[in-house]
Structure formats: C-alpha cells, structure tokens
Amino acid sequence: MKLVYTDLINFLSEKPSKNLLSEKLFQLGHEHEVHGDIFDMELTPNRGDCLSLIGLARDLKIFFGNSFDLDLYKDNIGSLDINFKNLSPEDCPKISFLEIEIEDIQSNYKPYLKNFFDTIGGNKTNFFTDISNYISYELGQPTHCFDSATIQGNLVFEKKYCNNTFKTLLGSEIYLNDDNCVFSLNNEVISLAGVMGGASTACTPKTKKVLIECAYFKSEPLIGKTIKYNLTSDAAHKFERGVDIKCHDTVLRRFAKIVHDHAKIKSIKQRSFLSNNTDDIYIPKDLHKINKVLGTQLAESEYEHYLKKLGFDINSKIKVPSYRNDIKTQNDLAEEIARVIGYNNIESHPISLTNIPSYKKNDMVPMIESFLCKNGFSEVINFPFTSKREKKSIIIVNPLDSNRENFRTSLMDSLIENLLYNERRQKESIKLFEISDIYSKNSKNTDILQEKRLGIIISGRQGNNPKEFSKKLDYKYLNHLLNSKSKNEIFKITEIHRDTLDTKKKDKIFYVEVCLDDIPDIFFSNLRADKKFVNFISYKPISEFPSSTRDFSFLITDLNLVNEITNILNGTKDEIIKDSFIFDFYKNDKTDTVKLGYRFIFQSSVKTLSDEEINKKVQEIINPIIELDGVCIPGM
Amino acid sequence: MSLDNINLLNNINNTGTLHPVNQTKDYLLDLLREIGFQEVHGPEIETEEFNFDMLNIKKSHPARQMHDTFYVEGKKNVLRTHTSPVQIRSMLDKKPPMAYSSAGRVYRKDDDATHLPMFHQIEGICVDKNINFANLKNLIHQILHNLFGSDVEIRFRPSYFPFTEPSAEVDILSNSGKWLEILGCGIVNPVVLENCNIDSKKYSGLAFGLGVERIAMLKYGVNDIREFYKSNLDFLAQFK
Questions:
Q1: CATH topology of domain B19-44+80-239
Q2: How many CB pairs under 8 A join A and B?
Q3: Most exposed of A137, A187, A398, A461 (fewest Cβ within 10 Å)?
Q4: What is this structure's pTM?
Q5: Model confidence over A259-281: pLDDT tens digits?
C-alpha cells in the first residue's frame, strides 16, 4: 500500500518528520520504503486494519496523538427500500447499502480528492468510483458502486457454485467455476463479491444515482480468488486481511460528505443488514502473564496506558477494538505491548540449556564427506525435480512446468548433467558427489519410501600433477578408492556410456549410487568425521569467458635450477592467470637432465582474451627463465 | 629429486570441497549444538497436517494455496514449505524441557532471480518453564554475534507468523548502512504447544528460523543465489 506522508500526518496531532515517522513505523512492525513523500508500506497479513490512513494513524497514536476530525455527512439519511436477501450470512455477517442521487455531475475535484489522483490514486474512472477509491485509502473499507438504474429486481448475496462467464467492470471476461461469493440480480451474477464488480451494473461518467454497497466479507471465501481469476483488486486485498465490522456508518457518512462537497444531493437513503454473528471480543486482564511472556517487569499503570492508547477498552476485562481481527489471546496482547515499548528496548536475559538431555550424533554423512573431499571430490546439490516419470515416481500436482513434474528416483541424471556442464567449461578432471534423500512410492502405492543416497561420478584426468596428469579416472581408480577394504565389492561401479549423451568428449564416465544404509560398517573403519573449519572466504565471481591453455616443456641441464624455476613459475600471479601447475616431470639419469612440463590456464573476468594478449603474458613469464644458463625450451 | 617431491612443489590444492550451503548449514548446526540444541530430522514430503494445521496455519492462509506450495499426488501431502514440521514431530515425541534444531531442504513454488523452488532452512525451538521474549533476544544476539561479530548492530521488528506470538524479524546493519533481514523468530504460539500436547499454562517456548542460502550469501559475498546450484567446479573450488 502506498500513502502520502502529508496525508498521514493530517491525522496525527504531532507532525513527525519523515525520518521519525519511518523509525516509529518500523518499531510497530510496519515495514516500508520511502520514496520522496510516498511511503510504500509492506504490512504483515494480520494487520488489515492498517491498510488505510486512519488505520496507520490509530497505530501511531501512542507516539504522536490523533486528530481524527473526520468530516462526515451530518444531515438525516432516509431509509432505503431495497429488494435484497443475504443468503450467506456466514460469509458476510453485515452489509449496508447507501443510495445517493445527485443533480449534476462534478468533475472539478476538491484539493484532497485531486491530490489523491495526482499522487497515488491512479486513473480517474467516474465520480462515484473515484470517491470509493479515495474512501478505501482514507478509511480502509472497500465499497462498491452500482449504477442504481441497473439494479432492478431481486438482489441477492450468496455463495454459489458457478459455471459461467462474467464480464468485469474493467472489461475482461473471466470464467467462474467452483464456489464463489457473488451478488446476483434476478439470478444473474453481477458482481464477484469483495473482488470486483461487473460491467453490466457499473457506474459510468453519466451515473447520477448510485447504490453503494459496503460489506463485511469474511476473508476465507475470498482467499485465492484474485490469483485464480488473474485479477488485481485492492478490495480483495483488504477483505482477505480483515476489515472493521463496525465502520459502515462512518464510511457511508464520509462517502456522502465527499459527494456533498462536490454536488447537490437530491436524495439519500441507507439500509443495513446485520446477522447476529458480531460479538465483541474480551480478554481477561493479566499483567503477570504479559510480564511472563516478555520477560519484563511492567507496572499495571504502564500496561493499561499502552493498551488504552492502542484503542482497547479496559474495565474488568479488556475489550478488543472491532477493527483488530488479529487480537484474541494474552500472547497477542503481549505483542501489542512489546511493539509500543519497542522490541529493541526489551532487555535480554540469558537462558541455560544445560538441563536438556544430550544425544549421540550419527557420523555417517560427515565421514563420507570428509573422505571424499580429502580425495578431491566436490559436493554438489541438485533440485529433485525431473521430467522423467517412473512407476514409483512421486508426482507433483502443481509443478512449475512439465520438466519438473516428478521427484527424481535416482541421483544419476543430475550428476551426469553436472559432469557435462563442467566439461563444457573445459574442466579436465571431474570428481563429484551428492548426498540426498530420495523419495518414491512403494509398489502398492500406499506409502512413501525415503532413503538417503550417495551418488559419485568421475571422468577425465586423475589430477593436475605429474603423477596423475596422464592417468585417467577409471574403474580401477574408483574401485581402489572405494572397494579396497573388503574382498567383496562394497560399491557397485558402473560405466555410463556417452553414446546417449550430448557430448563429443571421449573420456569414460564411471558412476556409483548407493543407499547409505546399505554401506557395510567395514567401509567406515578408519574413517573420521573431521572437524570442519568453515572458512567464510570472500567469494570472487567466476568468469563466463572462455579460458586458454598454454603448456611449456623446459629442458633443465643444471639440476640445481629445478627449485628456482618451479618457484618462479609457481610464484607468477596475474589477474588473467586462472590456474598453473607442473603436469610433467621426468629425470633422465643417463643425460642427467630434467624435463619439466608446466601448464598455465588463462582467463579474464571481463573479456575473451586474444592470442596476442596471452602471448605477451607468456613472454613475460618465461623470458627470465630461459635467460638462465642451464635451461631451455626445445624448439624455441 | 623424485616425483613425489615435485608434487609437493605444485601450488595446487587437490582436495575437493563440501558444498558452501552445506558448510554454512553445518556451521550453524555446530553453533546451535554448542548452545545446547540437539539436531532432529524429518521428511521433505510432509502431510498438510504437520506442515500447516499443527502450526496454526489456517486453511485460508495464502501459504496453503496451490500457487505457493507444491502439492503431491493425492493432495494430502506437500513438499514441506519450512523445517517447522520437524519441530512438531519432535514435540509430539518428547516431553519438555527440550531444545531442538533442524536443518534441511524446503520447497516453495517460486523460481526467479532471487527465489528458488528449493532452498535450505535451519531452525531451533526450545520449550521449558519460563521461556520468554527476553531469552529469545539473548539467544538471537548470541547467534548473530557469532556470525557477524560482537559489534554488529541488531534490530528486532514486530512481524507475523501464525506459529509464534509475539513474532519478530531481525535485521543487521550492513557496512553500507542498510538494514538486512536475517531471520524470523518469536515466542511459540500457545496454540502450537497445545497441538503438541504440551501444557501451555506450564510451559512456554521460543523458536527461530534462518535461510541458509541467505547467510551463505552474506558470509561469502555471493550476490546471486542461483550460483549455488549450477554445480560449477570453478565456483565450488573457491570454498575449500
């Protein structure tokens, strides 16, 4: 909800600055952003009573006082003869109608109405609807204006099963189905109650006689209707959050006054229909309970002062104001008092949790994690949704899209996708694992099965060092890593063939998936769940530009230089060097020489590097080395 | 010089890495364990009863609509929208005093630049005689001082959750002078205690919940939540 600062402070005795007002709104729990004079409020869903100028002013009264001099229509209002039946009083316990006929239509609005449309009121529609929109902003009560001439016959409010199209007053045609609260005229739906009126009975710029409907719709039957029918409705937003059942007289007299400010009233009549479902709410006085909930030591006088300022009547019991649909219990009152004291002003007190029984932690997952990380595997987390449906798949009724209709029954597809993703990013050595719960239906479709699974996938080089660079990640590697503790195979290793995958790479892919409960104890012997030291490093965004690789093969004839050369190479840092490492090392004992292979991977975070830029950097790196006596790059 | 020696010269850290979201989750769980919370687990596919009804989330609450919550076949089950049902299961299972933490994946029907259909939550609940809002504040201060330093400026704001009353949202002041929302918390609504067969006249509780990705983003300086789930090794390797 947007509101204008100057409009709000009109209702406050003191006139706080924007900063002070903002601070106090936050203290009360009313989140917002301030843009110039506009406060863009994001109110919690329990505070429907604050969705108006007067509502927020009531809440702010404790800090700034109120000046509620609402200008109301004071003259006598006649009794309206209307052919109306409320067939669903449980959904709408109170409904009032005001009929006004004016002599001339006024298009020059008084400053308060003009300012509203100049700032946040949107487009003007017609005289009566414009007033209705302003009233909703000022007092929080939505009203609906029917062109009185169109309401001829039996008018009914009802919740009914619909199966028909309905044209809204904004001109869109919607298809109504299931149960809806509606107004019907001679059995035809003319308004989606509390949400939007219909085109057939809407006011026009020519309307001189209006029937204003002012109702207390319960929130439950309206929830979800705007989304279902793709409508935007300020009225529904307010009814869903709760309005004041006792405001009808004030609202309609204020409506009449605004009409009167602009036009000569020819006739004015009103009628209210009230069912008996409108009891006031009383809560026992219990200061002790409030202090117990908050951990405070409030005095009786403070307690009463705060509640009175918030509009509660205090006698032998506490009477909740009719606009506070959210207050029912002592804990609700505790929150009220905490808000006005300020949550930040309540002193904190430690608690001791020493009397809580301790427990033994299951170390299986951390042991596997430590083991795999130590061996160069990286953990991934995948979303569980898939387009693939099996008999045992759990199906999502309302998926985001058809590719995410089912819960995955295996980790394999996700891990293959992760592998291919990294291969496309020139990763040459890929070792990934995922630990996740997998859900499926049992064979009789009567129960949901849950198991914690481990998935492991490998492909490419074993590592970026001379010992492993030329070796591939293969069955032997994985088998040695996982199955060496037992004569029997602990983990079943399978090869995933590339012919069905979208890839041109040739390296073999090996995969393991196992339910954690099926891993025998022997695997965990000698494994430890290492204490993790979480390093909250400062993350550097990864580059989306391609990388380039340059390999160098140094022939070192003076063996004393090996350390110096590797130090120079390893010490070379530059913003375009993403990675560098020794990938080959061969000592020829016959010739007493060393062959040293070194790889640089270049990548920029801002652009695709040209060969020229890379070659320039390469010269800078290797020139100081090949100038040394006892080292050369054969062929250069 | 041997091959093994030369490997030592290489400046590459060949270890793998635990996912940063899991690292953050484990860090928070360890922190809560030190304070005295014990970890409990629950299923990601939950009944409507545990995910909503027992937590005082009424049928009419917007969170229960099809556009916010994933429903699974039969419509009686949902993908849990928060980790709170785990607390319900634990409260039904044991008697107070109790202090439980639970962490895990939760689901909301969202998918845009700042919201994912799956993310991680961690929460704690503590029920005993005489637990109050002042205790809650103290506990939240402990957690946030550990995460963001003892001089971090903390702001409590009234908020609304059906399962706590009073409810609060807690912000910290960032270096740029902007308040950042960090967590939600409150005094357990007595209705929820009663739903779990705990006498609300005798016992009271506090509860809090944090988004793990949110904490990870702030602590690591990751600006786009989607980065966590691309499984890019260049990304993951940074969290060694």
A1: BirA Bifunctional Protein; domain 2 (3.30.930)
A2: 290
A3: A187
A4: 0.90
A5: 999 999 999 999 999 986 668 99
